[in-house]
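Let's sit down with a protein and look at its sequence and fold side by side. We need material for that, and I hope you will provide a protein of your own picking. Once you have written the record down, we can walk along the chain together.

***
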Amino acid sequence: QLQLVESGGGLVQPGGSLRLSCAASGFALDYYAIGWFRQAPGKEREVVLCIGTQGRNAYYTDSVKGRFTISRDNAKNTVSLQMNSLKPEDTAVYYCAVRNYYCSGSVNNYNYWGQGTQVTVSS
């Protein structure tokens, strides 16, 4: 059974950091691009950034550039999202999802999804 499970969300003060993880089971991440997405209340889900099979980061949300980075560990079958200098507007449910080989800026192009983890940035 293919499964993605996110973890690491929580409450953090503005300016703080969080590290989210996405663990895959039932398949190997090696041949997949992995994206991180977020959905704030009342807003559409958006692609934040993605990492391709060669480890290259693709950013789709300008507001996170310089603050968020994504990395993958194929040996552990996990992908991480390091979020620094967090802002209240980063508050959302964060999801990971995969698609074959290449990153895409379209939410609809990703095939398998995790259940999401809540990130709240507030003082």
Q: What stands out?
A: The radius of gyration is 13 Å. The first strand starts at residue 3 and ends at 7. The chain has a mean pLDDT of 95. Residues 35 and 50 are 4 Å apart (CA to CA).
